Amino acid sequence: MSSRLGHLWKHGAAFLGSPYAIMGGAMTWVSEAGLVSAISNAGGFGVIACGAMPPAVLEKEIRITRVKTAKPFGVNLIIMHPELNALIDVCIAEKISHIVLAGGLPKAVTISKIKNAGIKVLCFAPAYAIGKKLVKMGADALVIEGMEAGGHIGPVSTSVLAQEILPEMAKEFPEIPVFVAGGIGRGEAMVAYLEMGAAGVQLGTRFVCAHESIAHPNFKRAFMKAAARDAVPSVQIDPEFSVIPVRALANKATDEFIGVQRQAIEDYRAGKLDKKSAQLKIEHFWAGALRRAVVDGDVEKGSLMAGQSVGMVKAEQSVAAIIAELIAQAEAYLVG
Ligand SMILES: Cc1cc2nc3c(=O)[nH]c(=O)nc-3n(C[C@H](O)[C@H](O)[C@H](O)COP(=O)(O)O)c2cc1C
Hints:
Elements: H1 3-8, H2 10-16, E1 22-24, H3 33-41, E2 46-49, H4 55-68, E3 73-78, H5 84-93, E4 98-102, H6 108-116, E5 120-124, H7 128-137, E6 141-145, E7 151-152, H8 158-172, E8 178-181, H9 187-195, E9 200-203, H10 217-225, E10 231-233, E11 246-249, H11 252-269, H12 275-284, H13 289-294, E12 304-305, H14 319-335
Parallel strand pairs: 1-9, 2-3, 3-4, 4-5, 5-6, 6-8, 8-9
Antiparallel strand pairs: 7-11, 10-11, 11-12
Bound molecules: flavin mononucleotide.
């Protein structure tokens, strides 16, 4: 690695404790011990996706990961998880070094509980004002994730978030590392964000088709066939009935979802359903859908969560090869 690249992400790499400031974005059902340890072993920073795991399952996953790597890795917790406190207790008992809090704005008590145990906390900042608030609440680092990303997304692109947040953070909180996520598929883009002031990057989609990823072969095939334009956000057909924005590859379920929304809304208007039940019908449509796609390989009825960088996923590669490719592209860009 050149000294220029090493210098650009020095702060991020020191914060993570890994040679490269490349975080493997936690992906529910995908980011388990195998992929997480492979990312950390290749010089990046793997993050276990806790998703809906109960505490005992998380404990087991952490222990398996430890067997597979001696390098640092983190745990991603969704703040709406009903057993969030117990999950944090597991991370404390297992001496996890970094926790990423996802799924919304965490409570100050949650951040303090983690920090008091000596664990570093990373939080998602969808705007500078929120980032500032999170830092004041004790967040040790921020992740800014644009709408190009796979999975649950906000409304703003990575490039705009980076311009809005990185310069302000550099001015007000230069000691807080900021990691940029969403739509990064190549090393040149990594460098661009590092040069804008990011401490590091987080990639998810690029790692789905790694040899070490347990994603079903059908899921991987769908990724390798897809172009950027196939990874689309979920569509909401009525302003009164909210739909959680998720970016995924369009499939049969995407079309069916429109029909389910239409039917639920019609039933509500006809007085056959109350508003809450209609909304629940819409929300329940995707329940278990990511598992169906990733684990069972049902690429028609499952949710194929993917970012726009899916167009740059062309083949199955080892994690080490993916990371080496990103570094080589970054180095060539810096030299040129
Ligand atoms: C299949 C899939 C599942 C994901 N699950 C989670 C999750 O459980 N928690 C989370 O914070 N982010 C989740 N993400 C987002 C990733 O952690 C990462 O931030 C995102 O993939 C980065 O953008 P990219 O896909 O453009 O690389 C998921 C993304 C994908 C593609």
